[in-house]
Amino acid sequence: MTTDAAYDRLVGRLDYPMAIVTTAAGDERAGCLVGFWTQCSIDPPRHLVCVSDKNHTYRVLERGADAMVVHVVPADGGPLAELFGGETGDDADKFARCEWTPGPEALPVLESCASWFAARIVDRLGLGDHVGYVVEPFEVRADYDGEPYTLSDAKHIEPGHEA
Predict the structure, then answer these.
(1) Which among 36, 43, 30, 39 is positioned nearest to 110, based on CA atoms?
(2) How many CA atoms lie within 13 A of 157 on its CB side?
(3) How far is it, in rounded angstroms, from Cα 109 to Cα 100?
(4) Residue 150, beta-bridge partner list
(5) What is the pTM of this model?
């Protein structure tokens, strides 16, 4: 087995929780489903959130966004995950098709996700076909106690963009 095939087989068995990232730059909102996100520091508390460089959300993040909201997708959040993972923001307003409210610093907060954190972007790292955003939470809501929507739940979603 080649190294690439073995790696694909190994990571294909892992079942990461999915998140939806939302952001805004000026009057433009954007959001996408992400599977690459993890805590990367305890003190200060920080996360690494990776967004495909082909994604509309990436372009909005690079146009001047200095913060984002990272939403934990609940286990029953399939329709929302499909909207933010299967649609592209290039030609559709995803926010017109879901319930959301302006949250901290006017960032869009998805009503269907009871747990989320708003975070400032403190660093950006080129990581191949994704950009890693190191973020530091400044406001947190932790109201969902159930299981998260996972990568195995999302495998049927046709991505709005290639990775």
Answers:
(1) 30
(2) 28
(3) 5
(4) 17
(5) 0.92
User: Do the Cβ atoms of 110 and 99 come closer than 8 Å?
Assistant: yes
Domain 16-154: state its class: mainly beta
Q: Is the pLDDT score of 1 beyond 70? A: no
Structure tokens at 143: 């109201």
3-state helix, strand, coil in the chain (%, to 5): 25, 40, 35
How many angstroms separate the first and last alpha carbons of the chain? 24
d(CA 115, CA 10): 30
Q: Please, what is the average pLDDT of the chain?
A: 93
Q: What are phi and psi of 162, to 5 degrees?
A: -65, 155
CA dist 57 → 14, 48, 104, 118, 155 (Å): 25, 16, 18, 16, 20
User: How far is residue 41 from each of residues 70, 102, 111, 136, 139, measured CA to CA in Å?
Assistant: 16, 28, 28, 9, 17
Q: What is the 3-state secondary structure (H, E, C) of 38-91?
A: EEEECCCCEEEEEEECCCHHHHHHHCCCCEEEEEECECCCHHHHHHHHHCCCCC
Q: Is the peptide bond before 108 cis (omega within 30 degrees of 0)?
A: no
Locate the domains of the chain by residue range: 16-154
3-state secondary structure of 121: strand
6: its two tokens: 């073995």
